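Side project, low priority. Logging it here so it doesn't get lost.
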Amino acid sequence: MMRARSLPLLLVALATAPLLAGCGAQAASQADSQLGTRLTVFSSLPLTGPEAAAGQQILDGERLALGQAHSRAGRFTIGLHSLNDAGSEGATGGGAQGASGGGSATANGGGSATANGGGSATANGGGSQAATGTRSRAAHGTGSQAATGTRSRAAHGTGSQPARGSGSRAANATGSQAAPGTGSEGAKGATGAEGAKGVTGAEGAKGTTGSEGANAAAAGSEAAWGRGQTASNATLASRDRRTIAYIGDYNSGATAISLPLTNQAGILQISPRSPYVGLTSSFDAGQGDPERFYPTESRNFVRLLPGDPVQGAAQVALMQRLGVSSVYLLNDGEPFRTPLASIVGGDAKQAGIKLAGEETVELSGATGESHFSGVVEAIMRSGAQAVFFSGDAGEGAAALWRDLYAANPQLLLLGTSEMAEPSFTSAIGAAGTQTYLTTPVLPTSHYSRRAQQVLSDFRRRYHAQPTSNVLYGYASMEMVIDAIRSAGATADERQAVIESVFATHDRGSVLGGFSVLGDGETTIARYAVDRVHAGAPVFWQELSVSGPHVP
């Protein structure tokens, strides 16, 4: 069985260095001062680059939920700061991101920011940066902690809930902040690569991981998100004393950078995607995961989209539906994707499906016809009926798909939700006829009556056709708002809001009913299969997913 490569230890260590530097500077009681009635939710998503369409619809879903709540939760006014985590590589825009519904606005990719709806404004990703001055560390609880360690996914939800602890309020930092409600810019600081240095304490974006060539593999596709930009976003949120929640990031590699920062600051983090199993569980995860993402040893992260174990079970259910008796497993060696191939292999074996082989393929430089000749020949010799690939969905993967189809037009080609994008499906040509892609993003018509009303409201407000990504954004913001309401008078205590979310049981939402488990997973487990038609991913069937590691 293939094992995930160990994530470089410095990936998290250096990303968290700015927050750890000031720990112990202030007594915990000093973090408990009242802050008035304004709280801020940060949103960090890819708003430029190849995943911009999905990121924008998630963000618009957040705005819609906040607007329908009139930017209120109990006695608190909620502002929204939208940040682009695509980094300088993709941040080509300049204007401010509008925060509809009374939230604040941020500039992504450069330039100054203006405030919408009375909130504050902060420039990000090439404009001004928040000051990187000394901050205090709020003490976190000493009571019961969320279960971590080496437990298996079968023990899902059996750990105790995160500790209430000292009840540190949202005032976890003393760095310079943009003045709420004034439309002022963030504290002037370094820009571009120097901005990344201010966050990571190292050279540019490299400082987040502290290594060179290995960083690209450990951190994922730079075309989709930026390491330095993600660290900057999470640091900015952590140093804003009014921050009550952080929605993001979209990619697992980005979340691996932001999560230790929000955890150290005691901020609730909800991701609408980021499926890497090691963010919540040690099951088939990289070495030291998930503990390295939780420096306080208390859980603050919830993932709404089903994680790798659910997709693994969905892949095996698909193989059974297609009558597959033998499968060849491929991965691209990227630490956040390799575990899914291991999970699929284990589940396939348990289902009586033969593993014809397994291999790591190098996708970079896949321009010539002979680039994949070795792996293609091995697959042909194995007699496998199907190939499952977990990896980047760029041109290299499309070239691999075309080569496999050319070698055997009857070979079934199975891919992940990352590949269920037009950028991939439009590049694989005739191989699309043999392609099956599992995805947790169902057609909008498959969601509840309440979800249909939200989608209708979206059409009226934005004059655009929504995808199901809108629902994930809406559900994320709605969960934050409801947690603040549930926390009542202590809603400006970050830990109280975290506890409120982790107490979620049989929650009704636009995504359907679900509960939050002790490790941050939810019980959402719906999965679908897309086929390819006219170069685009098209819904084929919904799967019934079950298994020992499915919540």
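Brief comment: The first helix runs from residue 10 to 13.
Revisit when time allows.
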